[in-house]
Write a structure and sequence with these properties.
single chain, 444 residues, mainly beta, 9-stranded mixed beta sheet, 31 strands, 38% strand
Length: 444
């Protein structure tokens, strides 16, 4: 279908909120390598403000715009009563090439210097959702949606952060105690973008920034007592083996996968939240309704896959079963820095460990199949694969770099199997290091 003449009257864009997290706090602060100070968390604080020289909550004024229909500052509120937040940044666009620019300040009101360590769009995996209004064609809306962008400029930072890169880490960006810096957020419908044949709404996730008292701070993960770490499903007809459908990131960035786990089942389910959650992931209502049955054998897997586990409570079987497979995307986007795989494992599915920060991988001897892109978008340099391998699919350890993850730069590969017994897919190791498949160390 050809694009029709633009008929949008109110393309509404909403950034739900921007937030500052400053619970990130070092246990100790070293001063000149000779003194040690245990800072009081109450003395560390970074907040939003309408003004540079003082902390002022309230409406944020639009700095500039080249579109009509945006009433300056309406609904855009700075609120520091709890976690610092700005909510309600919005715009109405009628044609490509339009934008709205908001300006405000971040102020260090604490007694310590504050380092901006991380800026994340959405949940680090997705950020923009476009919803057609009645009468608008979804395919055309999807194409137009590609032209919707958010840009974040932070004073004294040379890089412009864009919604094309969801996870951004910063090495040495500091606000001195008592100082302020200007932040500019631009909502843009890019010039030359596709147009749709009706109105549509664009919804953004949060934009979150983390400040700490130390450089290069990584937010700690504290496991919650009795929390389920691995969401499992039956992986065989007789029910004596399990696959892992999802991993709870609260259980840590160094994942050690046991060889035996209990089977997880639904105990209670918020059916309404379940259905709306699936619909929010783009699943048709009729399918969402059929999925959200408390006795469904596949619901645990579906909730884990779509990151909706909080709509239910769970029970664990008293018996444990052998873990033989790692499911599709089950450990993706979990911030993992290392993973230990069980010797019982036989199969690793597509995208199972994609989009993490792994630097090396050891595949046990029992694994015979590694799915496509299983370890893509990491920082892997060393791979050791066991003797049971028979198939490694396309770009399983590929060099992809997306949304701030990766690329893998593979330097060393050891496969403890005979070369003639293993089928390699396309571009399995990426080899942007300059090496090639001829550099693989075959051991049999």
């Amino acid at each position: 279908m050809k694009n029709k003449k633009l008929t949008l009257t109110a393309l509404i864009i909403a950034v739900l909120s921007l937030s500052i997290g400053f619970a990130a706090f070092s246990n100790s602060l070293n001063i000149k390598s000779s003194a040690n100070v245990n800072p009081n968390e109450d003395d560390f604080g970074v907040v939003f403000s309408k003004e540079k020289d003082s902390v002022v909550d309230g409406k944020v004024v639009i700095a500039s715009q080249n579109t009509t229909g945006n009433e300056s500052g309406v609904g855009t509120i700075v609120n520091n009563a709890g976690a610092p937040e700005i909510s309600g940044l919005s715009a109405e666009f009628t044609a490509p090439g339009q934008q709205v620019v908001y300006e405000f300040y971040v102020k260090n009101v604490g007694s310590y210097n504050a380092y901006l360590t991380e800026l994340i769009f959405g949940d680090g995996k997705s950020f923009i959702t476009c919803t057609p209004a009645s009468g608008a064609t979804k395919d055309l809306v999807d194409k137009a949606c590609e032209g919707i962008k958010v840009f974040v400029n932070i004073e004294n930072e040379s890089k412009v952060f864009t919604s094309d890169t969801l996870v951004n880490t910063l090495d040495n960006h500091m606000i001195s105690k008592g100082a302020s810096e200007k932040v500019t957020v631009t909502l843009s419908y890019l010039e030359g973008s596709e147009v749709a044949d009706g109105d549509f709404t664009v919804t953004f996730g949060d934009i979150g920034s983390t400040y700490a008292t130390v450089k290069n701070f990584t937010k700690p993960v504290t496991p919650v007592e009795n929390e389920i770490c691995f969401y499992t499903y039956t992986d065989s007809e007789d029910g004596d083996t399990l696959g892992i459908a999802g991993y709870n990131a609260n259980c840590g960035k160094d994942a050690v996968i046991p060889s035996n786990l209990p089977l997880i089942k639904i105990a209670t389910l918020d059916t309404e939240a379940c259905i709306s959650g699936f619909i929010g992931k783009g699943i048709k209502e009729e399918y969402a309704t059929s999925y959200c049955q408390v006795d469904s054998e596949v619901l645990v897997s579906l909730l884990a896959l779509h990151k909706l586990t909080d709509v239910a409570t769970y029970t664990q079987s008293s018996e444990s079963y052998t873990v033989t497979s790692i499911g599709f995307e089950s450990f993706a986007y979990k911030g993992l820095t290392s993973v230990t795989l069980p010797d019982t494992l036989t199969k690793i599915e597509i995208d199972a460990f994609a989009f993490n920060n792994l630097t090396s991988v050891i595949i046990p001897d029992g694994v015979d199949t590694i799915g496509g892109y299983a370890f893509s978008n990491n920082n892997i340099s060393t791979v050791i694969i066991g003797s049971g391998i028979t198939s490694i699919n396309d770009e399983a350890f590929g060099a992809a770099s997306t949304d701030g993850y990766g690329p893998n730069v593979i330097e060393n590969v050891t496969i403890n199997a005979a070369k003639n017994d293993v089928t390699l897919g396309d571009d399995v190791f990426g080899w942007i290091s300059g090496k090639s498949d001829s550099d693989i160390n075959w051991q049999s």
